[in-house]
Amino acid sequence: MTYSPFAVAQAARTLAAGGVIAHPTESVWGLACDPYNLQAVKRLLRLKRRPLEKGLILVSGEMDSFGNFLAALSDDQRRQLRDTWPGPVTWLVPHFNRIPYWICGAHASVALRCTSHPFTAALTHAFGGAIVSTSANPMGCQPARQKYQVLRYFGDALDFVGGGATGGHSAPSEIRDLLSGRVMRPGA
User: Fold this and answer.
1) Can you give the pLDDT at residue 172?
2) Which residues pair with 61 in a beta bridge?
3) Rounded to a whole number, what is the largest CA-CA distance in the chain?
4) Residues 6+ away with beta carbon under 8 Å from 79
5) Residue 7, Cβ neighbours under 10 Å: how many?
6) CATH assignment of 5-185?
7) Nearest to 30, CA basis, from 187, 154, 181
């Protein structure tokens, strides 16, 4: 799977400027923004019609980007993450109040995924860390699997749409709770 370095740089600049973008992930298209820019997060939530209390996923191409969330974990817990990353598994990890409320919502954990999608991994590297990434669809609608679906949902309300095709997985990322081991949402 190839991607344009120019598109990566453009997407990273857009995120750094407070924009909201659409990008491919392992299975569906995602909406992304800078997790520490409250205005960008609020805009993303309005586009999705998603309540703040539900929380959002942080995605990076490098496990090290999640360092402060992983510091308090046991060796076995870190091994569980390494065994599934990079890939389409999102883990709910205790955040110990190290994340803004607009990311974790009403939860004591934060959703983290180390992506295996080449464009998204390169984007997070160019951006300099993890990004918010949530499925590109208004709440209650099917996640976009193609760029044209993203454009149908959001039109010109996004600041950048690009990055190639999804990774071809048939289902959105699996979500697992690190403390209980429970699968919260089955994946591909």
Assistant:
1) 74
2) none
3) 45
4) none
5) 17
6) 3.90.870.10
7) 154
